[in-house]
Amino acid sequence: MKAYANLVLTGFMGVGKTTLGKMCAHRLNFEFADTDLLLEMRSNASIAQLFAEKGEPEFRQMERRIVAELAAGENRVISCGGGVPLLQENRQALRQTGLVILLSAPVETLLERIGGSTHRPLLETCAETRQQRMQRLLKAREADYKAIAHCKIDTSRYSVPETVEHIVTLYRTVTGMP
Ligand code: S3P
């Protein structure tokens, strides 16, 4: 398999992985794959339902199987659910076959983007504010996010088309793709 056969977008909820991933896939003429969408399609249930009915540990195992399957292919833009980097197996599988780009944004930007959305079960908590919850999760994930990434882009610093351009150029340069 060629080096960096896939382009992997990772990072916290709300950084723009799905939006940017679709656009990058279009530009590179790659297949677009989103771990959350695949999980939902295959189980015929929403992420919130999966968390509620199966619990997070089982959700992570389902997610792990999808990641392994996607990483085994090539010419894909893989947009990962925010918790994918938490498992060592996922980090290894994705780094082995992909250029892994960690997308980030300040908490205030993430809060604005996620707004009142209710389909992210990990953020639904009464014990703390959304901001506190995000900050705590981000801190807990910092090391795993760092460990999976080949490079990092702060998506709040550029417009969406600029960010896409940045990612596509980076991928082309690293892989030598024309
Ligand atoms: C999660 C992120 C979500 C989804 C699930 C858990 C996480 O995906 O997989 O709610 O653990 O960060 P997005 O990052 O696409 O919102």
Strand order of the largest sheet: 2-3-1-4-5
Q: What series of H and E elements makes up the topology?
A: EHEHHHEHEHHEH
| CATH topology-level name | Rossmann fold
> Strand fraction band?
5-15%
Number of strands: 5
Overall geometric form: globular
Largest sheet, if any? 5 strands, parallel
On the 0 to 100 scale, the average pLDDT is: 94
Number of helices: 8
CATH architecture annotation: 3-Layer(aba) Sandwich
- Estimate nothing, just give the exact number of structural domains: 1
Please report the first level of CATH classification, the CATH class.
Answer: Alpha Beta
Which molecules other than protein and nucleic acid are bound?
A: shikimate-3-phosphate
Q: What would you note in describing this structure?
A:
This protein is an alpha/beta fold and 178 residues long. The protein has a single domain (6-175), classed as Rossmann fold, CATH 3.40.50.300. The protein is 55% helix and 14% strand. The protein is built from 8 helices and 5 strands; from the N terminus they run βαβαααβαβααβα. Strands 2-3-1-4-5 form a 5-stranded parallel beta sheet, with helices on both faces. The protein is globular, with a radius of gyration of 16 Å. 34% of the residues are buried. The mean pLDDT is 94. The structure holds shikimate-3-phosphate. Shikimate-3-phosphate (S3P) binds at residues 13, 17, 36, 47, 81-83, 120-122. Shikimate-3-phosphate binds at residues 13, 17, 36, 47, 81-83, 120-122.
